[in-house]
Design goal:
Blueprint: E1 4-7, E2 23-34, E3 44-47, E4 50-54, E5 60-68, E6 72-78, E7 85-86, E8 89-94, E9 101-109, E10 111-112, E11 132-133, E12 146-147, H1 161-167, E13 175-184, E14 187-188, E15 193-198, E16 203-209, E17 215-221, E18 226-232, E19 239-244, E20 250-254, E21 259-269, E22 272-275, E23 280-283, E24 286-290, E25 296-301, E26 309-314, E27 318-319, E28 322-327, E29 334-338, E30 340-341, E31 348-351, E32 355-358, H2 371-380, E33 384-385, H3 389-397, E34 422-430, E35 435-442, E36 447-454, H4 461-475, E37 479-487, E38 490-493, E39 506-514, E40 520-534, E41 539-546, E42 557-561
Parallel strand pairs: 2-9, 13-20, 21-29, 31-33, 31-34, 32-34
Antiparallel strand pairs: 1-40, 2-5, 3-4, 3-6, 6-8, 7-10, 11-36, 12-29, 13-14, 13-17, 15-16, 15-18, 18-19, 21-22, 21-25, 23-24, 23-26, 26-28, 27-30, 34-35, 35-36, 37-38, 37-42, 38-41, 39-40, 39-42, 40-41
């Protein structure tokens, strides 16, 4: 079953008979379900950035709405909760002239614990001894090339702060309340979306939507002393602004009427959505600039058709190396392009201190290895270890300790302002049958892989650590990309034996899902493949199955699927 992570939608402006929009009534029916197929009440339904209602106790919503004809209309269904992050659902519809426009959508919102990084609106006014391997869960969201006008440019793992406020009020210590006033001249800008940039996670995090007075408030994580925000509103130029933070700050944002060309360069990897810095953007022969640390570039348009022509994105360190878009007056103002690293990005690991157990016996005890020796060995095996004093400080800000994580507090790890993929829990069994165990736990608290090996003598500890580290790195989830596609039997990828790949392994391929017309609708699972040849850092795969209308091409994501 193919799972949609995120819908990326073309939103164009059809100007018919001068500046007049033609509209027709549409009936939109939504059934919101959890990933387990249960009804999801109180899910927010947004049509073209306008909140039109929410689902009832049985997960249903029905509304009659006047909408422009012959334009892709974005439908978003989301659910704010302090207990579970529900990945938002996106879909597009088109209203046809003279038709009975009835749309019935089933919106499945996949829930993941722990709670999100977001905090609510401030009050107005202001078995470890045996080796095992388990598959990781499917990634929540991924994005790729497409013109779009999504409310969330990078689909971060964050819910709407305003929706969260309806569920519960969090303590003041959770963050600094910042109130934004979004205006254009003397007019308030209603429904303006405000995001803040998370520098550690390289994401735009959704904050709040402005009310009829142009005001909205949410809490910025307390570890930030300065913040960069992004403000978007239909009919206005998108603006990015950086400023220093003071508790209780009030920030006025002035938007100019018009449009902006928005480019978002995204690297979806290991379930994370990180912006890609340094992607060069050109219009024809004119260079517009490069994407910032959040993967975004904004270019204001002062006249209609100013940005018409060929938009080119180029990079020397990412795939695809070059992407071109033909843009005209009817094109969307947003481009979202995913990029994959030429060299696969190793999963980010945070390592706990060794936990020692006594197994009994009178034999001479061996001392547990040090954290430093384990860290060095994992790095030698290709791991990306993020342990640092700064990381422990970020845990402390959330009243957590990396070394004291347990099932009761593991759901708080995602609040830590650091991008991580796995927590490594090392154990040492003392006694006659001394043994070292390495376990990899994902951020949902599920053990993904565990391996153990006996230690016969003091001198063998280093060799045992090296063997376990190699096995662990070969069995946690690795993602890579297609680097060359000559035919269905000649597809080369940038992961190989060193990443645990073996002939006969099954891979999933993620890329652009398309309609029969060729229109891109999502960055989704589009194909499956098997490994037919493998060397240390490269592999060759053969396609087994492809989704209708999909194209397997260089830059597509590949992931080892170890599910039975």
């Amino acid at each position: 079953m193919f799972t949609r992570y995120a819908s990326l939608v073309l939103l164009s402006v059809s100007l018919l008979m001068g500046c007049r929009y033609f509209q027709a009534e549409a009936t939109v029916s939504v059934q919101a379900l959890t990933g387990e197929g249960e009804a999801l009440p109180n899910a927010k339904v947004v049509v073209n950035k306008i909140h039109v209602g929410q689902t009832d106790d049985h997960g249903f919503f029905k509304g009659h709405i006047e909408l422009p004809i012959d334009e892709p209309i974005l439908i978003e269904v989301s659910k704010g909760s302090k207990e579970v992050f529900y990945a938002p659902f996106f879909e597009t519809i088109k209203v046809k002239r003279g038709d009975i426009n009835t749309f019935k959508l089933t919106a499945t919102l996949y829930g993941v614990k722990p709670a999100t990084d977001e905090v609510p609106l401030a009050p107005s006014p202001s078995s470890e001894l045996t080796e095992s391997a388990a598959s990781t869960g499917e990634t929540l969201s991924t994005l790729d090339v497409v013109d779009t006008s999504l409310p969330t440019p990078t689909l971060s793992t964050a819910t709407d702060a305003n929706a969260s406020a309806e569920e519960a009020v969090q303590p003041v210590s959770e963050g600094r309340p910042i109130t934004f006033y979004v205006v254009s001249g003397r007019d308030a800008v209603e429904n303006a979306a405000v995001y803040f940039g998370d520098g550690a996670k390289k994401q735009w995090i959704q904050g709040c939507y402005a009310n009829a007075s142009g005001r909205c408030t949410f809490r910025i994580p307390s570890n930030l002393d300065s913040v960069t925000i992004l403000v978007r509103a239909k009919g206005f130029q998108t603006q990015s602004k950086s400023f220093e933070l003071l508790d209780g700050d009030k920030v006025r944002i002035e938007l100019a009427r018009g449009k902006s060309l928005e480019v978002f360069a995204i690297n979806p990897n290991q379930g994370n959505m990180e912006g890609v810095e340094g992607i060069k953007v050109s219009l024809g022969d004119k260079e517009l600039g490069s994407t910032d640390r959040f993967g975004s570039l904004l270019a204001p348009m002062t006249t209609e058709g100013e940005m018409s022509g060929r938009i080119t994105l180029t990079s020397e360190q990412w795939l695809p190396a070059k992407v071109e878009f033909k843009r005209d007056a009817f094109s969307s103002d947003s481009i979202i392009q995913h990029f994959q690293s030429l060299k696969p990005i190793a999963p980010k690991l945070a390592i706990m201190e060794f936990i020692s157990y006594r197994a009994g016996g009178d034999s001479t005890l061996l001392s547990p290895p040090s954290l430093d020796s384990l860290t060095a060995t994992l790095v030698s095996a290709g791991a990306n270890v993020v342990n640092s004093p700064a990381l422990r400080g970020k845990f402390a800000e959330q009243k957590l300790s990396l070394d004291d994580l347990s099932p009761t507090n593991f759901n708080q790890v995602k609040k830590v302002a650091e991008s991580m993929n796995y927590i490594i829990r090392p154990s040492f069994i003392e006694g006659a049958e001394a043994r070292i165990i390495l376990s990899a736990i994902d951020l949902q608290g599920s053990m993904i892989y565990s391996a153990s090996q006996s230690v016969k003598a003091k001198g063998s500890t280093s060799a045992v650590l090296a063997e376990l580290s190699q096995r662990l790195m070969q069995n946690i989830r690795h993602e890579g990309s297609i680097i060359e596609n000559q035919s269905e039997d000649e597809i080369r990828i940038n992961i190989g034996k060193n990443h645990g790949l073996a002939i006969g392994d099954k891979l999933t391929i993620t890329g652009n899902a398309r309609l029969p017309s060729g229109e891109i609708t999502a960055w989704d699972t589009i194909a499956s493949a098997t490994v037919v040849d493998v060397i240390a850092e490269r592999g060759r795969i053969k396609i087994l199955q492809t989704q209708p209308n999909a194209r397997v091409e260089a830059g597509n994501n590949v992931a080892l699927d170890r599910k039975p």
